[in-house]
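I'll show one example:
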Amino acid sequence: MFEIVLSLCLLANPETCETRLLPVGAADCAQALARAEEIAPDWGDALIAGPFDCVERPNSGMAFAQIAPGVFVHLGQVADVTPDNLGDVANIGFIIGEDSVAVIDAGGSRAVGEAVYLAVRQITEKPISHLILTHMHPDHVMGAEVLIEAGAQVVGHRKLGQALAARAETYETSFARLMGAGFIGSRVPTVGEGIADRAEIDLGGRMLDLVAWETAHSESDVTVFDRQTATLFTGDLVFDAHSPALDGSVMGWLRVLEAMGAPAPARIVPGHGGPVLEWPEGLVDLRRYLLVLRDETRAAVSQGLRLGEAIETVGQSEAAHWALFDLFHPRNVTAAFTELEWE
């Protein structure tokens, strides 16, 4: 099979270039070039796009493990975004049905999205019918456009589109700064109407159950349950090893953790860490963290502490349990303090 690659260079610095892939999946170069003309995006005024080059499909370079029949998971690095990891810092999965494939999350850059596409293609030629984005954060969505170009329909929370549109410029500026040239060609996807409550996806003899939750880790959290293997993809409603990140409601998050285990999963795939955890044991550390955050923030508010003082004291007993604690925990205290001071 053949794919199309091209060079993208910065208009402001034409020597800074990256090679990008268009996911055409064609039997020959004539078909590949024709398909590329159909799906090539508008790269924008800041980039110079080179000519299309037809190549034999490259290897992905991204490792996926089969954790249950037809269920594949990639372990993202437990790290902040850097030029070296290209935003590959969140878990990604895909599920293969009789007719098609659903991908769950798309990574933090176009480069990661390309690697996900190629990894799927190393295992199956079935169409990628759906891309399920578990929430709005950039480390989960910046690779989405590659899979959309490959034919996937984006599925997410009803608040996902609005949340991404409101944050697109901030996310793109931040990740470009953290990643450098490796971010070239990446952008926040445009998504349509999402799930208000529950939805089903039929991959052909394989049903996925999606639930859109109340504001918890974020305002746009969705879980994915594969009925065939009872595998639950939680997105960032569950963290393992990696410090939790609160961009929603600590109270809502605790409620969701109580509610999301019906039907009981055989295993869960968290948004970070793992990548496979037992149920319900896999929730123990996160629930403990959130309870400490809630209770000690409440105590700080009742004692009349200012936010800066609360950040220095709340939840410090958790520091040894989580990677990237110093990066994320102060933000979590800020979010919890803002929520709980008005209880």
